[in-house]
Amino acid sequence: MKILDRVLGSLLILGGIGHTAGSLHFLRADPMMLLWSLCASLFVFLLAVLNLIRAGRPEDTTLAWLCLVAGFCWILVSLRFGVVIGNVFDVRPMIFIVLTLGLCALCVRTLVGKR
Question: Could you give the number of structural domains in the chain?
Fold first, then answer.
């Protein structure tokens, strides 16, 4: 399961890189939207790194709780983005939702002690 944890965390980093590149390309004419979009990218990178650290510390329940709450927040933001663009099942929010749901499930696994 540690491998799955690291794969999902690494994929989340790749998603953050894609989010950053897309933001810089499509939002360069709107500095305010670009700023908020890059803040979301920063959140994704921090969430991914926290989960990668958590993967190496399966006994750390405090870190698991932090990752779980942050993951749920990112899922809500991704769902809201899907609503704003008019398609919750668009590939952009769905990638983040699926990856983050997987990481949240692994957090719950840590919290209930099934290692």
Answer: 1
